[in-house]
Amino acid sequence: MKGVEAALAIWEESRRGMFLSQALRNYSTDLSEGERRLASTLVYSAMRRYSLWVDIIKSFLHRPFESLFPLTGDALILGCAGLLEIKHFFPQALVNAFVEAVKKKRPNDVGLVNAVLRRVLADGGRRIEELKSSQNLLDQALLWGLPPWVARRWAETWGQELAKKLFVSQVVKPYLSFRLSPDISAEEMVSRLLKVGIRSWPSPYFSYVLRSASFGLPPSIVGYDEGLWTPQTESSVFISEQAVLLSAGKRLILDMCAGRGIKTGHILERTQNTIVEAWDISKNKVNAGRRELKRLSVLERSIWKAGDSLSLVPDAIPDLVLLDAPCSGSGTWNRHPEGKWKLSSGKLAGYSRLQKDLLKRAIDLLASGGIVVYSTCSMFREENEMVVGEVLCSAPEVIEIEIDGKSFPLQRGRPFGYYIWPSSPWMDGFFLCILMKR
Ligand SMILES: C[S@@+](CC[C@H](N)C(=O)[O-])C[C@H]1O[C@@H](n2cnc3c(N)ncnc32)[C@H](O)[C@@H]1O
């Protein structure tokens, strides 16, 4: 079973620091669609609830989990996640596939892997049921795959009921939505995708966004190279749409943390006379951003600079600054689950400091009447309301502008900004606050 071997190789790469999505791309070129899906489901299920699988495995081991040979530990984690989460797969075949994979490199551990995975199959579900019936916060953190300190912090911020919803959203499998270029209608794109076997349907929130039940559409799919569609979650579209709506009559937008240019591309596609100056600290991302805008045929209305946004200088005073700030990414942990195991409260405080500095700089760059669209894909107040609050204290000339989100699932921040709740597979958690310099 090639999918199991690929999952083990991808997992090993991620232990060395590579993102799952990147490792999956590297290893899936030779796999059939079915094997690729198996590898992807195994690694993402394993990563989303990593601490739960370790807890279950430990209860069936007679030696410390940490003392296992790395491949043996990996086979147990992936096997445990697969056996307890993949309902449609024949469990015995999965156990055999992991046993075979271990036999090649670590024959002495074959008996152990076989025995533990069989115990998982027979009794692992009982531990999950036990945790489900517990009200204890640490049990809930274990059940939904969250570091305990994160669970505690979210419970304090959101209260028990909302925090529980947020915990559950961590394990919801995300689906892909994609933004359409103004050159193609939703109906036409739906029919073009259907011709290659992909079912899609319009988003209830945007006339130019389609939803699909796919986890990742390969760029080779119809229309991508022509710039007809761009993968973008609906939350992210909502953020860049605010910049589009506010840019009416404005000439220069500064995208202070443009990354690979997903929001930059959206703004340029949906405006006519706007110029976007796009900055990012990473040269690679700036190059990727240029390629992205070239694909969308809007590169000529952009100016790219690689460097630190705290010190770069714009060509002209911007009318609007989009600050899509670097953050913990905690609103996207179902999509990038490795992020939650790498974050610490110290790192969170570091993000918060950088966000405050970047927001102060954004305000300094504006003239009177200028606007800042501040956003993060984080559900921590430390990166959101607390950043805005502190910056507003030192800038009395700045006020918040309220948003009319219509039917979009927005929740008012306390007291600043709005959260986009990760309430569906097309929606990541985001925070957004619009400020104006008087
Ligand atoms: C949330 S991502 C931006 C995503 C992008 N707006 C998009 O929609 O594709 C934040 C970006 O900030 C960049 N960054 C981090 N620190 C920075 C700094 N001091 N100056 C400029 N960019 C920075 C990171 O490289 C990262 O690409």
TrEMBL record:
Q: Give me the residues that bind S-adenosyl-L-methionine, please.
A: 280, 308, 324
Family matches, as InterPro entries: MeTrfase_RsmB-F_NOP2_cat (IPR049560), MeTrfase_RsmB-F_NOP2_dom (IPR001678), NusB-like_sf (IPR035926), NusB_RsmB_TIM44 (IPR006027), RCMT (IPR023267), SAM-dependent_MTases_sf (IPR029063)
Q: Which residues form the SAM-dependent MTase RsmB/NOP-type domain?
A: 165-438
Single GO molecular function:
RNA binding
Q: Which Pfam families match?
A: Methyltr_RsmB-F, NusB
Question: Could you give a single Gene Ontology term from the biological process aspect?
Answer: RNA methylation
- This protein's source sits in the domain of life called Bacteria
Q: Which UniProt keywords apply?
A: Methyltransferase, RNA-binding, S-adenosyl-L-methionine, Transferase
Give the positions the UniProt entry annotates as the active site: 377 (nucleophile)
Which family is it part of? Belongs to the class I-like SAM-binding methyltransferase superfamily. RsmB/NOP family.
**Full protein name:** tRNA/rRNA cytosine-C5-methylase
